[in-house]
Specification:
- The protein has six helices and six strands, in the order αααβαβαβββαβ.
- It is an alpha+beta fold.
- The protein has one domain: Cathepsin B, Chain A (Alpha-Beta Complex).
- It has a six-stranded antiparallel beta sheet with strand order 1-6-2-3-4-5.
- Strand 3 and strand 4 form a beta hairpin.
Length: 165
């Protein structure tokens, strides 16, 4: 299965990035999804990765940057994807305020910086230099987005949900 732009979901709530990533996986599979229903299991800071893993039949855990690079090699086959935490301020510093060229209805994700709150994105494909991903903070136009493997490693915050499609 391959992700296409029509599988993208823009998160409805500010702290719903993990839920929206899970929703994109469900949409790809043709399954029903309700962000509001999934967010009933959320904490004040959003949906735990463990709950997202249960919702999509994936496995949650932690990866080192080296482990992440190993997983990226599997993304190109089209039968796996990863929901990952990235550092919001580093993401904005490296990818810009509007990485797809379109503003978010929620405003700025974060101020550029070197540390801060996590943000979840859905990694859907990779090659030797580039990672393609969907970001639920931003609208579908211009997605999937791309970043370098090096940039992903710099902003990666260890927590993942791995999913076989």
């Amino acid at each position: 299965m391959r992700f296409r732009p029509e599988h993208h979901l823009e998160q409805e709530e500010i702290h719903a990035c993990v839920a929206a990533c899970a929703g994109m996986l469900r949409r790809l599979r043709g399954e029903a999804f309700s962000e509001a229903a999934l967010m009933e299991s959320a904490t004040a800071s959003g949906l735990p990765m463990r709950v997202a893993a249960e919702a999509v039949g994936g496995t949650d855990g932690h990866l080192s940057p080296t482990g992440l690079l190993g997983w990226l090699d599997l993304l190109g086959s089209g039968d796996r994807c990863l929901i990952v935490w990235v550092c919001g301020p580093i993401y904005v510093k490296l990818c810009g305020v509007q990485p797809g060229g379109h503003p978010s209805r929620h405003g700025a994700l974060a101020a550029p910086g070197d540390y801060g709150a996590p943000h979840a994105v859905l990694l859907v494909d990779a090659d030797a230099e580039t990672v393609r991903y969907f970001d639920p903070w931003y609208p579908a136009q211009g997605q999937p987005l791309s970043m370098s493997r090096d940039d992903l490693v710099e902003m990666f915050m260890l927590s993942v949900v791995g999913v076989s499609l």
